[in-house]
Automatic annotation (TrEMBL):
Residues 129-255 form the Peptidase C51 domain. Coiled coil: none annotated. SUPFAM superfamilies: Cysteine proteinases, Fucose-specific lectin. It comes from the Bacteria. Residues 70-113, 444-464 are annotated as: Disordered. Residues 450-464 have a biased composition (Polar residues). InterPro entries: CHAP_dom, Papain-like_cys_pep_sf. This is CHAP domain-containing protein.
Amino acid sequence: MGFGNGRCTSRQSRSCATVSLPTVEQVGKTGIRWLARVVAATCLASGVAGTVAAAAHASDDYPWAGRGQCPIVPQVPIEEPEPVPVTPTPGQQPGDEPGDAAPVVEPPPPPPPVLDPVSGHLYDPRGPRPTCASRVWSIDGSIGDPWGFVWRNCTSFVSWRLHERNGMDRFGNHFRGEHWGNADNWDDVARRLGYRVDSVPAIGAVAQTDAGRVGHVAWVSAVGPGTVTIEEYNHALPGGYGTRTVPATEFRYLHLDDVAPSPYVGSDRTVVAAPDTLGGSWTARVDDRGTLWLARPGRPARTVGPRRAFSPVAAPALMLSRRGLPWLAATTREGRVLAGTPRRGRLVLRRVARSASTASPAVALTSSGRPLLAAVSPDGTLVTRRLTLHGGWSRPARVGRPASWGTHTAPVLGADAQGRSWLVAVTEGGATFAQSLGRGRLQRLGGPSASVTSTPALSTDGTGTTRLHQVTATGRLGVRTLDGGRWSRPAWLAGRWSPYASPAVDDVAGQLHVAATGSRGAVVVRSAVPGTPSHLGRGARPGRDLTLSPGLLTRRDGGVFVVARTGARLLARPAAAAVDDSLPTSAGFTP
C-alpha cells in the first residue's frame, strides 16, 4: 500500500499527531535486544523463495525502517491478579497465635513493556501485540518524509530508491509541478509528464498497480524471463520491507530514469527476409525454443544448425549472394556467431565471431560481392569481418571505442545507390554512428537519443534515396536521408512507437512503407516517408506485446506481407490489407 500525504484522513492525521516514538530509556536494554531479534526475524520472513535471506535483510536500507508509531486498535486492558491468601496447613487454626493475620502472597510484578517493531508501541508481553488501525506512521508528530510521502509506506520507500539508486535527487510528491499522491495516481501523473509507461520492466523502473484501496508501487531490482523481482514496503509486512519475484504481467512500469535498459531486446524480429530476383523472399527466424529455420520461396522451412542452440531474443541475419544463394548468420545462446552458405547442397554454419546473446549479427555484400559481417561482443565491442578470396574470414576489425556499443540492439549493414557499404550502430548511451566502410570515418548522427533496445532499418528505394528509420528512447520514429556522404537530421513520422521493437521497411504497391510496433503493442503500417500519405489507410493490427517486431516479406504473385506473432503462432497478411477488420491469409505462417 502507498499513501501520499495529501490523502491521509483527518482521523489518521489526529492519531498520527498524538503519538511519539518511545525512547531508549523507555524500552530498556532487554527490549532493545528483543527488538533486534524481532526485526531480524521479520526481515527474514519478508523474503521470497529463491532470495537469499541475508541479502534481503541487507537490502533494507530505508533510513526510517522500524521507526515511528501507527495509530493502533484499542486493546482490552490487562487485569492485574488479586493477592491470594495462603491456605492454612492441616491442624492449624486461624487465631492460634493471637494478633496474627492470615498470610497473603503478593502476585509477581508485571513484566517490563516491550517494543513492537511494526506498530512502534510499547505493550505488555502478557497480552496481544498492538494492531495498526491504519498503515500510517508518525515520527516526532509528523506523518510525512522529506519528500512529502507517508512514513514507511510504499511511496516513501520508492522515493528513497529513486534518490539513492536512480540519482533522481529532486523527486518528491510535487515533482515537476504534479501532485503524485497515492500509488494509484503515479501512472497517470507519469503519463501526463511524458514518461513512458508500459508493460515492459527494466531495472530501476517503478512497478505500479491500481489494485487495492490506494494502489501499490515498488522498485524493480531484477528482470528474468517473464518475471520481475521487486523491492517494496508496506505490502506483506505492515510498514516493513519485502522482496517478491512475480510474473511481469502483475504490474505496469514507469520509466522515470531506469538504471539499466530492459533485457527484452529489440534486435529480435518475427522473421527476416531477403528478396530474390523472381518476386519472392527467402526467410529465416529463430523460434521460442532456440531452433533456427530457413525457407526458400515456395518451399517448407527447414532447420539449420543444432536445435535449440540459438538465442531466441536475437534475430538471425540473412542476405543473398550474387548467385542467389543465402548467407545466414545467427547468435547462439552462449554468444557465438555462426555463419554459412550452402556448399554442395548443404548449409553448414561455422563460428565467425563473438556476440552478446541479446544482439543479432549483420550480414551484407560488399561492392566486391563478398560477404561482410558485423557483431557486438558481450562487452560492447563492435567488430567487422570480411570473407577473403581464399574462403576464410579476415581478422576482426574493431570499430570505434571498445566496450562502448549497445548490446541490446544490433548493428546494421546496407548499401546506398552508389554501391557503398554503410555500417550503422548505436552506443550503450543511445548515440547513433554511421560509417562508410569503403572510406570515411565514424560520424555521429544528430538528433535525440536512440532507443538502445530497437534496431534501425536501412533501406534504399527505387529512386536511389537511402533512408534510416529509427525509434528514439522516447518512442518517436525518425527518418534520416543520405545526401552524398552526410546524413540529415531526423524528420518524424506521426504517432508513438514502442522503443523495444524494431521497424521494418519495404516497397508496398510502389510506395515505401514501414511496419512497426505502436506504443500500445499494435502492429502499424504507415508511409515510410514523412509528409507522404499512405494509400493503404491507417491500418493497424491489434496487439499487446511491445517487444515483438513485425517482419515484411514478398511472395511471388502475392505482393508484400506483414508477419506478426500471435501467441505461439506467426500470422501473415497482405500489407495492403493491414486494417483492423482484416483476417490472416492462413491459420499460421508459411514462408
